[in-house]
Hints:
Pfam families: TniQ
Domain TniQ: 10-117
Order of helices and strands: HHHHHEEHHHHHHH
InterPro entries: TniQ
Shape: elongated
Protein name: TniQ domain-containing protein
Structural class: mainly alpha
Strand order of the largest sheet: 1-2
Number of strands: 2
Amino acid sequence: MKCRPLPKSVAPVxxxxxxxxxxxxxxxxxxxxxxxxxxIGIDGKYAAALDHDIDMLAADRISAAARIDPAFVQSMTFxxxxxxxxxxxxxxxxxxxxxxxxxxxxxxxxxxxxxxDCQMCGDRLLPKADRQKGAAVSEKLIERARHGAAVxxxxxxxxxxxxxxxxxRAVTFAMGLKALRGDPFFALQRPKPNIRLFCLAAIASGQxxxxxxxxxxxxxxxxxxRIALLRAYEKEPRLLAIVDQIAQRMRLRADVSAISSHI
Length: 263
């Protein structure tokens, strides 16, 4: 099938995601993305899937229709990734930059669970449903979450399974404290900002003496905190035992201090 060039083309911007660029391309030609893809011989039902899986034939047809290099089309997708990086890359958009998203622009790094600030303008990324003003959250939580996002990015890029387990253990613990169930990888992509920020902040906190911090949470333990501990360390009973031992020593020191203060 020979593809005729579209009447109008759109120049991609650096780090633009293919689906976002296709939306802008379709808008400039006064049609829907599905119609545009069907016109050039690609099933429009799979438009979103092209971000993660596009073959050379589809790339060639898009490039011919839009008059750009097929290698550039490929560069706007998520190439083959290690499993950890793949699980930390959202299949659907969950956040955007309030300044840069106008006109259908969507950048690839916005899909990363560790992305926190827009690399184009520097503004904080906000949930898609709330990108006009942002939810009211404390600046302290935002800064801790920003630190946690930076840690998560380093972990993802390093490929260290040990560091990834440590980060996801912190997220699982945070989820337990919020009485949430589900996949900790998905929790980092939740559209509710307080959940995502809390989980990212937990990653930052978990970098320094994580067992002691887990024990601190369990000194005056309630049912949610206990569930959180069990879920976070369910596959590592030795670590859970260490957390319990540290918590017991903390309680003992607190009791001794209380007795001494009354003598």
